[in-house]
Structures are given as structure tokens and as C-alpha cells.
Amino acid sequence: MLQPRVPVRVAVINDYEIVVRGVAAMLEDTERVHVIELDADLPTAQPVDIALYDTFSARQAGADDVDEVLGNPLVDKVVIFTWNLQPELVAKAQAQGVHGYVSKGAARHELIDALLRVHAGECVFPNNHEVIEDANLPHPGHEAGLTMREAEVIGLITQGLSNAEIAERAFLSINSVKSYIRSAYRKMGVQRRSQAVIWGMAHGFTTRPRRWVRQP
């Protein structure tokens, strides 16, 4: 693999501060990768080699949100960071023009290697389409014991989405959505959707546009 001559400049994109900060911490490798910007529900505002798009509670490959990142003239390449490895989504990402598609089950060195390969001109997509149910990364609700999947569903409930809309956004079946809701509610100590929304608002599941610019 051709090594980049300078560290790869990366922006991490997601709606949640805890998510972008967690991914940035995973990428702390000052010799090869510099995370120079964290964007919560805002477009990248300075030139970057790669925008790393985290799909937690976000729209998946093929959606307009990804098109907006791809169309940002300040972004050279786009890599999706996700647990949804279904072949249909991977194919959508390839057709959309995404440059990489990396599993959240990847180890730190695997994610960094994927970013370096994309920066060097490769297109990096998974060969193994095993669906990842959880990953050891910071997320809202982790202090209550919510898995990332449960937290994603609660985040979308807090945003006001219906079960059908959650299934479409998270690329899950309706039955899976209902199962995650039941298990999350038990951990949260709530019984009704209105209670879940109040709980979510009190536990970091609301979002607001913010940007953090970091020095290399």
C-alpha cells in the first residue's frame, strides 16, 4: 500500500457529540491520522482528506445525507463507519460513490489502515457481510447499560420517529425494533413511549448542531 506523505486529515460526522468524540479518541494516531474536525449535525467546514460518516441514528448509505457529504467541496473522500453490513447497503454505498465502508466491529488498527488505504486511492469495502449488533464505542445511554442498537432506537424515539420510520432509518425489521425497545425500556425503567422520550431527553439523546475544530 502506498503510504500517504502527510497525516490523513479526517472529519468525524454524526449528530451526537459523544459519538464523534468516541470515534475521534479511537483514531488518536498523531503520526498517520489527524482528526481535525468533529461535526454534530453540521457540514464539514475546512478541507479534509476524509469525512468519516458514523451511522449511529443517522441515515444509511444511499440517503440524501450521504450525498450532501459527498457533494461538500471541502471533502475529498467519504468513508461510512457502521454496523450495518448488509450487502444491499454496501452496494448502495458503492453506487453512490462512497470511497470506503468500514465495520464498527473493526479494531482500531483496522480502521486506521482502511483510512490510509482510502487516502492512497483505494476503495475499501467489506468482504464479510456479517451484521454487527454492538460495538465497544461510547454512545448515549451507555451508563444505563444500553447497547448501541438499543441506544440508536431510543435516540430515534426521542426524535419522534415511529417504529416503521426507525426500521427504515436503522435498516432493521419491525420485529427487531420492537425487541430493542422492550429490552431498552427494561433497562431504562420505563413502560411507555412518552416516558422513553422524557428519559431520552434527560440522558443525552437530544442533538444540537455543534462543530469542534482541533489542532493537528
From TrEMBL:
<dbReference type="InterPro" id="IPR036388">
    <property type="entry name" value="WH-like_DNA-bd_sf"/>
</dbReference>
<dbReference type="Pfam" id="PF00196">
    <property type="entry name" value="GerE"/>
</dbReference>
<keyword id="KW-0804">Transcription</keyword>
<keyword id="KW-0805">Transcription regulation</keyword>
<dbReference type="InterPro" id="IPR016032">
    <property type="entry name" value="Sig_transdc_resp-reg_C-effctor"/>
</dbReference>
<protein>
    <submittedName>
        <fullName>Response regulator transcription factor</fullName>
    </submittedName>
</protein>
<feature type="domain" description="HTH luxR-type">
    <location>
        <begin position="139"/>
        <end position="204"/>
    </location>
</feature>
<keyword id="KW-0238">DNA-binding</keyword>
<dbReference type="InterPro" id="IPR000792">
    <property type="entry name" value="Tscrpt_reg_LuxR_C"/>
</dbReference>
<dbReference type="InterPro" id="IPR011006">
    <property type="entry name" value="CheY-like_superfamily"/>
</dbReference>
